Here is the input.
Amino acid sequence: MASNAKRARRRVAVIGAGVVGALIARELSRYGGEVFLFEREVDVGWGVTKANSAIVHAGFHEQPGTASGRLCVAGNALFPEVCRELGVPFQRIGAYVLALADGERAAVEDLRARGEELGVPGLALLDGDEVRRRLPHVNPDVVAALWAPTVGITEPWALALAAVENAVDNGVALHLGEEVTGVAVEGGRVRAVTTGWGTYGVGAVVNAAGLAADRIAALAGVPVPRITPRRGEYLLLVDVPPSLRPAVLFPVPTPHSKGILVVPTVDGGLLLGPTAADLAPEEGEATETTAEGLARALAGARRLVPALPVGNVVKAFAGLRPEPAGGDFWLGRTGVRGFYQAAGMRSPGLTAAPAIARGLAAEIACDLGLALRPSFSPLRRPPPRVAGLPPAEWDALIARDPRYGRIVCRCNRVTEGEIVEAIRRGARTVDGVKFRTRAGFGRCQGGTCTDRVLALLARETGRDPEEVSVQGPGSALVVGRVR
Amino acid sequence: MRTHRVDVLVVGGGAAGMAAAASAGGEGARTLLVEEGSRLGGVLDQCIHPGFGLHRYREELTGPEFAARLVAELAGVEVWTGQSLLEVEPERPRARAVGTAGAVEIAAQAVVWATGARERPLGALRVPGARPAGIFVAGLAQRLVNIHGLLPGRRALVVGSGDIGLIMARRLHLEGVEVMGVVEIRPYPGGLLRNVIQCLDDFGIPLLLSHTVVEVHGRGRLSGVTLAEVDETGAPRPDTARFVAADTLLVSVGLVPEVEGIPFAPRDPTTGGLAVTSRLQAAVPWLFAAGNCLAPFDLVDTVAALGARAGTAAARYARRELSPAPAVAIGRGPGVAALVPSSLVPGEEATLYLRASRPLARAWVAVGAGIVGRTVHGVRPAEMIGVRLSPEETEALARAGNATVEVIPA
Here is the structure.
């Protein structure tokens, strides 16, 4: 019993396998001790992580003196290394903040001053002529712009998936589809977490529960203000000519948000949005788009780039981001010993995540007396991806496994081999395959390949097709057999 | 990488590609047909309903039967299935394909592009609401039902009255699915009249013209959609909005020519398909095209006929018998929604395939401000109008320097 209690004190429960929780679990796996990662969804990164602008910010939008400002700059600097270790796409394409009227010039200058105070490298103010020369496609009314070369783009869900894979390789126990329903606190410190499946004695709990972080904090009796779900609507365009996607474009920010952006995606598309609509806390799952929101996203984007190829729109979607009262992240130790916050991850939460994870893991290791584990490996073996692979390497891959020669998703050139590998690595749903391989993410949005993905999921997991879902329980793709 | 040398490379083993390969082979050209799927047929394979072949074979066949006829015509043609074409060099007819045996370079004299079309997804319409499971483009649902034997849902609504949507409304009805109706934003159907009668009217499935889906509902799986009538501009009228419960939404809102594999070849700005002359030849002279990668056609018989012409032309090009000829651009005048080809070769016979932008009881199809004219009865946007031009007529149009097509109510 005593040894059990001792063992429990070296255990950490991370609640939430979004990009923040995933990276924290990975950082914790550098140390001795046990790590549990709990996620109520059936896959990794399906909350806030799945639907956001996918931007790695430079930091100039943040106020000096805030945690979000400091950690954004630090997180941006860590991104190339983290993405290289984990085999996740990251392109540092830079961003422009466009001042479209004389009245907006001061805002751009202010952003530069802020950014320089925060230590954002490489910022430059450009006059209208220079912007028009560099970006012939933008609104010709542009009078000035801030150029920020350290801004990048990535795939947040891919980062979360890769971080979890690496964490699991380093001994983290992943518990998907397991919602935390209780946090036991005795004598002012956390003792256990309870889920639908059981109770786990722990010495530390990390609250990375995204939109549910206020609820999880309340379970531990940690007083926090409520989290407001802020809905952002987006339009996704595919196959966009490179001339229309050289860099991320921002308008000048409002006091409320960074505004509606034009964001290149890592695979040749453009994302327009987000809008910003605050929902009631109980609407934390309302990811529906609205006619007004989509119209506003398009109008906002057209203000930056008048001639957008609207015919290339293949998807409208909405994501929710947690808007913490007070406007800054909730991080680190709380009044309950062993209960740590990694919550209120508004933008730039994605950017800050690697820095938050590193700092928080070190703090927890210090508090629990965990030493670094020499056997930790930061490297994930990335799954093979044939798109963009040199022909000789692709041929070698096919020689090893012919399924890499059978293309299933034509739009994004994804083979059966890649889908089987994604399933081997944990994909159990159609969306799970999509987010891991990009099959179904392209111009036909799965119209051509979904039946084959379904068949592969059924075959590889030994289930009937009726048992395969799109995104977890209650979302079956097919309901039965024909007569 | 090994190199495979042929005269004519045909890309795509559907109706257009098989017909092209058959006629190129018939011309004596060494012909290779490359198909991505595990067998030939393309979309014909999943079209188990009858209605094919009335023109080409003078009998009514199902899709697989039509495909089997074409397969039987491929004697002497080399066929590779399970092979995806990766890229074509912009400068010369060289391509790279991949399959389970690795990559192969194909060196040809001419290429026929016959990759068909893909279905427009619901996302392209920017319909607001949720994104639950249960939304299928109609062709995907057709594959699930007819190829895999799987039922997509129990209570379905079809948005868009394209032919696949109409066919699938009947198909699901026959499988015991409650089909709530077919919703069409335009005041007339998007599919063939015979399909409206045989797929909807005969089974009492309502066709809701001038209606659209204004919101999608459901978490997890679809729970229903909100429909509304639209006004003359196509804008939904909020006072007419009503909820229809359904677990399945089939989407049949148009086809988009699949030409992404040849980004260097100019596209026709009105159809989005490959721009070709009346010889079915692209701006890149060794490239020919046929079928739905030009524009979505109404009948597979037409597609096969185009394929045969493209295959013959490609074989002649490969033999250096097709001399270069200047082509006159064909203009799109009022009343024309889609038109193939993009230009005319003067002094040669040509066929124009066009869709009118609205239904007309009687229309005058005028080319070159009346140099050529045809009267057409019962014009429907769903049905393509074929206008055959004689060598003298194409010559006259070229001389006048005007080959603009108009569809005028008459």
Remarks:
- The mean pLDDT of chain B is 96.
- The CA atoms of residues 10 and 33 of chain B lie 5 Å apart.
- Chain B touches chain A through 52 residues (CB under 8 Å).
- The domain at 1-119+254-324 of chain B is CATH 3.50.50.60 (FAD/NAD(P)-binding domain).
